[in-house]
What does this fold into?
Amino acid sequence: MNLEEETKRITLEYIKTGYECYQTLINYINGDMKGNLDLGNTKVSYIPKGLKVGGNLNLKNTPITSLPEGLKVGAYLDLSNTLITSLPKGLKVGGTLNLSFSPITTLPEKLKVSYHLYLVHTPITTIPKDLKVGYDLYLRYTPISKMYTVKQLKQMLPNVKGEIYV
It folds into this structure.
């Protein structure tokens, strides 16, 4: 996507989500803001390429379906109760990643989550063997929790450093 297309898409997002939400996105893109970015419970459905959030990124209860390549989140990434269907390959989250109550069915290769990964009440059916989770993995109420025991999952996912809850 070239700069003109990106500008048009961001402008359409402004029209849909309102000035305050749009201005917050622009400030992050321009590097004028650091720390947390709270877009939860808004109509935002698009995150621009190259966005870097030093703190938490809250997208809870939004219609977002995908995230751009190169997204960096320094702390908590909340995608719970969204329409997210895919994550970019190589995504790194410096804190917890919450995908609970989303329609996601697979995770990308080389996903790294420094703290907890929540997949509760998702239709997730596969998890890449190279998944890295610094603490706990929550798989309650998922197809995977019915397919495997905790012992089997620990053998399959040696890079989950904490507990696995099914």
Notes: Helices lie at 3-17, 19-29, 143-147, 150-156.
